[in-house]
């Protein structure tokens, strides 16, 4: 017996969102700062490509904002993840723990290293990797030796774990760090969605040895396409720069490369956009949090559904806002998606879980009951910063 009432849900959305003829998209970028000025400077001076002053400036701004010692700007978040995994020593035939509830990039990056994704479950409190369930699982299948942790079932090394801060909500990092240390597994944070999100006062991406950010068009700030590696390890930071700039050894005129590197450097014109965007990041986050507060109020009394709010240890950027249907009402999900999109309020379900995709169907995995349960009940609703800027 459920009290779910679709009209009440639609009314709550309408109460928060602006009225008008234009459809309200899930997440649109906002270019109301120095974007034109900085990009024009690139065009006027001819510095559009792989050299120029904005890349260094963007990297410094990122390091300042996140509190990380070093930031290295790259072409996109997937490339950042790929290099992060290389930097912590993921090799062919290794297994890498990734949540099944994530965007495809996390899993693809593992595959680019010729490593094997090993899917782990999510906790409902954070929508991210569940440290307690992981600890129990590793107690069963993990065999810690001098060379690292080995999977007793497959014989392969479990080299790294890549928690992801889902929709901007930080995972329980302290507990994950403990589990990873106990089992000698490298921690890499996929912080692609969590620029502007803080865990116990510290910016996300500071607990992994290296972490990845994304500045894709739908992220909190955008460079058109772009990403970054952040780290507090100076040596790894240097190596990240080296690897993502074709591993070229500096020399007056000779082209000497000391290993197979990548052409992953972020072009200056994209970095120019990024510098202007980062100047506005605190305002974007303020607006996004204001929008989330309004949603929370509007949905407080709506039966059968709940607006997801940040875990108590976190200050989240609320990158994409989340509604969770009660378990009893999960059958209403598709009708709700239809009704909202027809009204011009763009909504969408969670990503299809990674272990259900054909190319990853045979990968090792633990019990994924929570991720499967969340997948049926989760809906993303409009989240652009500009929606929170309206008359507060
Ligand atoms: C956006 C995103 C990335 C990176 O994507 P790019 O489009 O390559 O910048 C990585 N992981 C997650 C979870 C993401 O949402």
Q: Could you walk me through the main structural features you see in this protein, from its secondary elements to its overall organization?
A:
- The protein has 392 residues and is α+β, with helices and mostly antiparallel strands.
- The protein has helices at 6-16, 35-45, 53-66, 77-87, 104-112, 131-141, 173-183, 234-244, 268-299, 333-342, 369-377, 385-389; strands spanning 70-74, 95-99, 116-120, 142-145, 148-151, 157-161, 186-190, 198-199, 202-203, 210-214, 227-231, 248-249, 256-257, 305-307, 314-315, 321-325, 348-349, 378-381.
- Helix 3 (53-66) packs parallel to helix 9 (268-299).
- It has 2 domains: 6-30 and 281-391, Aspartate Aminotransferase, domain 1, CATH 3.90.1150; 35-279, Aspartate Aminotransferase, domain 2 (3-Layer(aba) Sandwich), CATH 3.40.640.
- 37% of the residues lie in helices and 17% in strands.
- The chain has 12 helices and 18 strands.
- The two termini are 37 Å apart.
- The relative contact order is 0.20.
- Strands 1, 2, 3, 4, 5, 6, 7, 10 and 11 form a 9-stranded mixed β-sheet that branches.
- The mean pLDDT is 97.
- Pyridoxal-5'-phosphate binds next to helix 4 and helix 5.
């Amino acid at each position: 017996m459920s009290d779910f009432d679709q009209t009440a849900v639609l009314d709550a959305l309408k109460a928060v969102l602006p009225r008008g003829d234009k459809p309200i998209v899930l997440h649109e970028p906002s270019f109301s700062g120095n974007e034109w000025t900085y990009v024009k400077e690139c065009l006027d001076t001819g510095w559009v490509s792989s050299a120029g002053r904005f890349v260094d400036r963007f990297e410094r701004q990122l390091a300042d904002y996140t509190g990380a010692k070093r930031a290295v700007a790259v072409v996109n978040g997937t490339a950042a993840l790929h290099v992060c995994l290389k930097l912590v020593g993921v090799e062919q035939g290794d297994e890498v723990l990734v949540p099944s509830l994530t965007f495809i990039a996390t899993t693809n990056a593992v595959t680019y290293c010729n490593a094997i994704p090993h899917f782990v479950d999510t906790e409902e409190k954070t929508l991210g990797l569940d440290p307690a369930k992981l600890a129990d699982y590793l107690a069963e299948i993990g065999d810690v030796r001098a060379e690292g942790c080995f999977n007793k079932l497959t014989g392969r090394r479990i080299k790294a774990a890549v928690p992801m801060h889902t929709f901007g909500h930080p995972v329980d990092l302290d507990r994950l760090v403990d589990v990873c240390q106990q089992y000698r597994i490298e921690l890499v944070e996929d912080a692609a969605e969590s620029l502007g999100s803080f865990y116990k006062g510290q910016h996300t991406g500071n607990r992994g040895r290296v972490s990845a950010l994304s500045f894709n068009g739908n992220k909190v700030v955008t460079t058109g396409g772009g990403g970054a590696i952040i780290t507090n390890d100076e040596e790894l930071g240097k190596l990240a720069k080296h690897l993502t700039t074709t591993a070229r050894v500096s020399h007056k005129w000779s082209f000497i490369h000391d290993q197979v590197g990548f052409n992953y450097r972020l072009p200056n014109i994209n970095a120019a956009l990024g510098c202007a965007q980062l100047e506005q990041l605190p305002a974007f986050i303020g607006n996004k949090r204001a929008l989330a507060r309004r949603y929370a109020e509007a949905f407080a009394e709506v039966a059968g559904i709940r607006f997801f709010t940040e875990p108590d240890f976190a200050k989240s950027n609320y990158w994409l806002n989340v509604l969770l249907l009660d378990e009893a009402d999960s059958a209403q999900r598709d009708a709700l998606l239809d009704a909202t999109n027809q009204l011009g309020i763009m909504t969408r379900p969670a990503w299809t879980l990674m272990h259900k995709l054909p190319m990853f169907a045979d990968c090792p995995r633990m019990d994924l009951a929570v991720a499967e349960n969340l997948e049926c009940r989760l809906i993303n609703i409009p989240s652009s910063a500009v929606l929170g800027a309206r008359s507060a």
